[in-house]
Amino acid sequence: MKNVREQFLDARGWGVFEAEVTGYLYHRRHLKFAVLPEVEQWGKFFDYALVVRDDKEKHGITRLAEETETYSGYLWQCLVPTSWLKEGETLHLNQVYFIWEHTDFTKEDAIRYNLDSLERKRAYLEARHGDMVVLQKSCGVVPGEPACPTEVFYDFVVPPETIKS
Question: Which domain does 114 fall in, by range?
Fold first, then answer.
């Protein structure tokens, strides 16, 4: 089984397109992570995965000719004032800021507009608290290098002991 994501990225690095997909729909508890190690990188925030297998004749992804009209989602950053970070101390969820904008990923103007809005929110927080650290963010178009590895961040937002299988 190969990862098909790279095959469908456009010039901006987005994989947004209309498609017909045939495969198996699995709940995360039915996936064997040893067989599909890439599932681990998705973190804890997915419940289902569509698996398209190379060895199944009817499985596949067909890109449709129609242009994608809308693909919406969130651009976000989780920020903390540098002055609030203390060595050896653990942050709590009520000690960080989440800033976000809902956008249409098929419209470059919408993305630029919403990235500008994120920057204005960050500037507002910096005016109040000083320099901010990006703990984590939604995707590559959102500026900043996350200071917190993805899995550590997911454990921060949803501690493992709170997850029920």
Answer: 72-159
Give the residue ranges of DSSP H helices in 23-134: 108-129
pLDDT of the residue at 127: 98
Q: Residue written as tokens 């994120």?
A: 118
- Whether residues 58 and 81 fall in one domain: no
CA-nearest of 41, 42, 61 to 51 is 61
Residues forming beta bridges with residue 113, ordered by sequence position: none
110 in the same domain as 39: no
Q: Where are the alpha helices (DSSP H) in the chain?
A: 108-129, 150-157
CB 86 within 8 A of CB 133: no
What average pLDDT does this structure show over 35-58?
Answer: 71
Structural tokens at position 159: 């501690």
Hey, is 138 helix, strand or coil? coil
Confidence of residue 83 (pLDDT cuts 50, 70, 90): very high
The answer on 83 and 53 residing in a single domain is no
How far apart (Å, rounded) are the C-alpha atoms in residues 35 and 24?
15
Ramachandran sector of residue 31 (left: φ over 0; alpha: ψ -120 to 50; beta: rest): beta
Where on the phi/psi map is residue 75: left (φ > 0), alpha (ψ -120 to 50), or beta? beta
Instruction: Please report the pLDDT score of residue 5 as a whole number.
Output: 63
For the chain, the first-to-last Cα distance in angstroms comes to 26
